[in-house]
């Protein structure tokens, strides 16, 4: 329904993914609004977002949505918020996430490898997958937990404050609608009373 009639070429789609024409800032503002308007408690929304943040620090690329949803379901958090939280991992942040996770993982596990002489190729990565995957997975837990806790602590009061403001505005609008409806009913009653008090003269009656 919302797809383009003429799909973009894969190069344009890749460029749009890496560098959106409308900018990353607008996208984050949009995600923030969607987060705040979710019909759930601030705790469940913030916890779900934190699950998505934690999932984005894992090396399971392509499965971050699934991992975030599973964590949110297990912790009884908001699943939609967890999907939104995975956007913390994006082409702008993945280099920093991967570097920090891999560096910490090598320190913890002690797994090291020699850099390839012929350059980084898919075959070399596949042959040394365990030496890359395990440190990334282990090293991503600590910064992932730290980032998810930080997002939860910051977002929970923000979401609560937004929901309170929105609830107050909705209450004011409801009261205004009730007041206008009451005034219309009162005006209609007064109009009926005025019509009964001064009946219309019949045609041909002499004026008083």
Keywords:
single chain; 208 residues; mainly alpha; 8 helices
Radius of gyration, whole Å: 30 Å
Extended strand count: 0
Q: What would the average pLDDT be, to the nearest integer?
A: 78
Which residue ranges are poorly predicted, with pLDDT under 50 across at least 5 consecutive positions? none
Helix % is 55-70%
Distance between the termini: 71 Å
Strand content: under 5%
Oligomer: single chain
- Secondary structure class reads mainly alpha
Largest sheet: none
Basic shape: rod-shaped
Order of helices and strands: HHHHHHHH
Alpha plus pi helix count: 8
Tell me the layout of helices and strands.
Blueprint: H1 10-18, H2 24-36, H3 42-55, H4 64-74, H5 79-85, H6 94-109, H7 122-127, H8 129-197
Helix pairs in contact: 3-4, 3-5, 3-8, 4-5, 6-8
Kindly describe this structure.
The chain has 208 residues and is mainly alpha-helical. The chain is 70% helix and 0% strand. The protein has eight helices and no strands. The protein is rod-shaped.
Q: How would you sum up this structure in a few lines?
A:
The protein contains 8 helices and no strands. It is mainly α. The radius of gyration is 30 Å and the shape is rod-shaped.
């Amino acid at each position: 329904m919302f797809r383009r009639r003429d799909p973009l070429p894969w190069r344009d789609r890749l460029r749009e993914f890496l560098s959106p024409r409308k900018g990353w800032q607008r996208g984050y503002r949009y995600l923030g609004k969607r987060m705040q308007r979710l019909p759930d408690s601030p705790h469940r929304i913030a916890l779900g977002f934190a699950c998505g943040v934690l999932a984005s620090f894992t090396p399971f690329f392509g499965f971050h949505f699934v991992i975030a949803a599973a964590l949110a379901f297990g912790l009884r958090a908001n699943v939609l918020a967890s999907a939104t939280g995975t956007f913390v991992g994006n082409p702008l942040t993945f280099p920093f996430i991967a570097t920090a996770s891999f560096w910490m993982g090598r320190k913890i596990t002690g797994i090291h490898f020699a850099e390839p002489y012929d350059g980084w190729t898919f075959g070399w990565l596949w042959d040394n997958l365990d030496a890359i995957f395990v440190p990334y997975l282990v090293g991503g837990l600590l910064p992932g937990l730290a980032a998810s806790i930080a997002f939860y602590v910051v977002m929970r009061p923000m979401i609560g404050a937004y929901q309170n403001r929105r609830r107050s505005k909705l209450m004011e609008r409801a009261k205004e609608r009730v007041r206008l409806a009451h005034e219309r009913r009162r005006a209609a009653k007064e109009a009926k009373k005025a019509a009964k008090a001064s009946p219309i003269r019949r045609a041909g009656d002499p004026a008083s």
